[in-house]
Amino acid sequence: MDLKFTASESGPIQVSFEPIGTFFVLEPDESIYLRTPIGTLDSLQVVWWTGGIEVWVDHPGDHTVLDENGTELDTL
Length: 76
Fold this sequence. Notes:
By secondary structure, the protein is mostly beta strands. The chain is built from no helices and eight strands. Helices cover about 0% and strands about 50% of the residues. The chain is globular.
């Protein structure tokens, strides 16, 4: 399953993946995707704050971050 995270038109945001510590800065209207097995969805935690999104992944190695074109950016 792919989860989409998009920066609003008002400015850049930081999307971080914990506890790994990987983060990406998205410019306005830019998106990234987290590809995760459906079986791990219940363990994901997504927290939003002004200027950012934090995603906690409990099963390292099972997740892939993709850009808007589907190109792999990182494996978590």
